[in-house]
Amino acid sequence: MSKGMEIKATGYKIDIWKEQLNNKAILPILQNQLDDAEKKKQPRFHDFSDTDMLIWYLNEQKNVDKKKDRSERTIYEYERELTLFVEQLLQYGTVINIDLDYIIEGSLFKSLESRHLRRYQEWLATESPHVLKKGPYSPATIERKTTIIKSFFAFLYKVGYIKEPIQIGFRIASVRKDERPNRDLGSKEVIYLLTTFRDMEHPIMFTIVHVLSTTGIRNEEFCSLQVKDLQVDTILGGYYLNVLGKGNKRRHIPLKEKVVNSIKMFRFARGLPSIEKSDGADPLFATNTGKAYSPSYLSQYVSKEINKLYQEQKREQVIITPHYFRHAFAIISRLNKVDVYDIMRSLGHERLETTEIYLEKVFAKENHAIHSWKPELFGEYI
Predict the structure, then answer these.
(1) What is the pLDDT of residue 161?
(2) Which of 21, 93, 106, 217 could bond to 221 as cystine, CB 3.0-4.6 Å?
């Protein structure tokens, strides 16, 4: 019997496991089990299964205010990656060389060792179905997947569910500067897109580009905006967007008058009621079906429309997603001499380092030695 089949033969059923993960009603039961273990002076997670551990890891309420815990988007991303990890271990155990003779206490997580995580990471990057069909993952994707799985096993070790810090088996997967995708978009290209979509009488794309590039909001933030999030600024005048960002943190993003006019134009073009006559819970931006955009659909739509435009203009094909305009906001702000800390806060970044990644090329050009050359040392040629 192959090693991959041995794992399945233990009764570790992925379909049942996936179904159980969606049962959020179990959270109060898990909390009671923890309380009971504490009362009996037992290890906290004494009676937990692998499924229980993952549900608790994803959904544990750490703050009194639930809104300050992991967002639904983050939970979904972590759940997807960790479920795929388990599924691939079970399905491709032989190829990955998951050399387990048996499952300890019915737990796959307790049975794994450092070498298994290292072998999985190597397989994922070189021989996984995605690689064989579509080519290698980007370094950023490998880094993200590694970080999620590594953080989960670090949690399992920290709480005593596993006995060894097997997450050390992962190799470093940080992304070098030259491996990051180039998402730089300056004012010249943004103005070109706005001008062209305006001249084409394409109010939908004009507004999407206008809003994204002048606010720097994330794809997900744009899609989740409701009519009530467009609010009158009683302090500075005009309007602002009340945006719910990562970590359920709110940002108030001022809007230029022309951007507000673009939003109204978008709604008129879609046949939606005016802001004043709309229900506050209605999506601020809707598809032609009247429903809110999903992040994946918005990304596909923006890429498709810009590619179509470039094709018609016989320009080089570039896949531009909504995230590019977030970079454009940072770059244009810096070129307007905005302080990097103000850019960081405007984008809703937690760390300055993240903002600096957006601005690497701008900083490099700003700090280039040529700017310090004096005309008298190089004559008429500078």
Answers:
(1) 94
(2) 217
